[in-house]
């Protein structure tokens, strides 16, 4: 499952690690990386053996944005075989029916920040820094605006996307782009705890939860909406997965979907 710019490994517990692998370019994405990411997310999303998808990067930086030199020389593919765009990758990652976790270090810039914002959980090491600098290059990041608005809110986005300024990990924590900061040497322990917590969740319930959140986000709370969701809840509550979850709780044991180390 490995390409030139993206490495994919799945461990025996079903944790898939997707690693951006262009460290000599700050993991800036080019057309090949976008193609490989989209293909990887499609495979992992369809693989019932994969329980959690972890996104991280090799080298000093998570992703410094687009590789502008490569973009200038590569073109956009033929009409019959268009290349994958960043929005395709963001949508594929956002819609994965399993939990996604990003681990950020160093630069997380432009489209790289959008990719991180599409993950369910974001951890960042203390050396992480962020920016949304597209206006300094002469264009607005219009297709990424909905991703950023959802992650940090319109008011905060107006400031940082208009100035293009770098902002710190503490800023990213306050605005909600990052959920947890990790100290030097503490990332793997923090990550292990989060992954273990996610593996305790029932796969079907997690997939349904993500789908419902995506569907209702921004909708008004109405009686009809809640009644419809109640119907789905009642069906899920009677499922074999739910029966196993309740039995495990009563018997004070791990549910059968929890993969032991």
Keywords:
11 strands, 3-stranded mixed β-sheet, 2 domains, 261 residues, 11 helices, 6-stranded mixed β-sheet, 2-enoyl-CoA Hydratase, Chain A, domain 1, alpha/beta
Description of the molecule:
This protein has helices at 31-46, 68-74, 86-94, 111-117, 145-152, 154-163, 169-175, 187-199, 203-216, 223-237, 240-251; strands at 6-10, 15-20, 52-57, 77-78, 81-82, 100-104, 107-109, 121-125, 129-131, 167-168, 180-182. It has 261 residues and is an alpha/beta fold. The protein has two domains: 6-198, 2-enoyl-CoA Hydratase, Chain A, domain 1 (Alpha-Beta Complex); 202-251. The strands form three sheets. Strands 1-2-3-6-8-11 form a six-stranded mixed beta sheet, with helices on both faces. Strands 7-9-10 form a three-stranded mixed beta sheet. α5 packs across α6. The longest helix has 16 residues, at 31-46. It is globular and about 55 Å long. Mean pLDDT is 94; it is low at 76-80.
CATH class of the largest domain: Alpha Beta
The major pleated sheet works out as: 6 strands, mixed
- Gross morphology: globular
- How many beta-strand elements? 11
Distance between the termini: 23 Å
CATH superfamily of the largest domain: 2-enoyl-CoA Hydratase, Chain A, domain 1
Q: How many domain regions?
A: 2
CATH-defined architecture of the largest domain: Alpha-Beta Complex
The pLDDT mean sits at 94
Radius of gyration: 19 Å
Order of helices and strands: EEHEHEEHEEHEEHHEHEHHHH
- Tell me the fraction of residues in β-strands, as a range: 15-25%
Number of helices: 11
Helix coverage percent: 40-55%
Query: In what order do the strands lie side by side in the largest sheet?
Result: 1-2-3-6-8-11
Poorly predicted runs of 5 or more residues: 76-80
Structural class: alpha/beta
CATH topology of the largest domain: 2-enoyl-CoA Hydratase, Chain A, domain 1
């Amino acid at each position: 499952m490995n390409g030139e710019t993206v490495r994919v490994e799945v461990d025996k517990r079903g944790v898939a690690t997707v690693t951006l692998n262009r460290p000599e370019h700050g993991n800036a994405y080019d057309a090949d990386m976008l193609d490989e990411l989209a293909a990887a997310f499609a495979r992992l999303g369809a693989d019932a053996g994969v329980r959690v998808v972890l996104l991280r990067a090799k080298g000093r930086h998570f992703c410094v944005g687009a590789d502008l030199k490569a973009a200038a020389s590569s073109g956009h593919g033929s009409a019959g075989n268009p290349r994958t765009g960043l929005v395709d990758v963001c949508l594929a990652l956002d819609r994965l029916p399993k939990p996604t976790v990003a681990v950020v270090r160093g630069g997380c810039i432009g489209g790289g920040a959008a990719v991180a914002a599409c993950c369910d959980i974001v951890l960042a090491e203390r050396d992480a820094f962020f920016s949304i600098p597209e206006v300094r290059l002469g264009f607005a990041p219009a297709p990424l605006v909905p991703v950023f608005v959802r992650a940090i809110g319109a008011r905060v986005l107006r400031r940082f996307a208009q100035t293009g300024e770098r902002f710190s990990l503490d800023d990213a924590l306050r605005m909600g782009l990052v959920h947890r900061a990790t100290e030097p040497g503490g990332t793997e322990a923090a990550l292990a705890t989060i992954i273990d917590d996610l593996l305790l969740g029932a796969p079907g319930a997690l997939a349904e939860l993500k789908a419902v959140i995506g569907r209702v986000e921004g909708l008004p709370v109405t009686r009809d909406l809640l009644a419809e969701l109640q119907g789905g809840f009642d069906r899920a509550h009677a499922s074999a997965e739910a029966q196993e979850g309740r039995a495990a709780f009563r018997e004070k044991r791990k549910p059968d979907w929890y993969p032991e180390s």
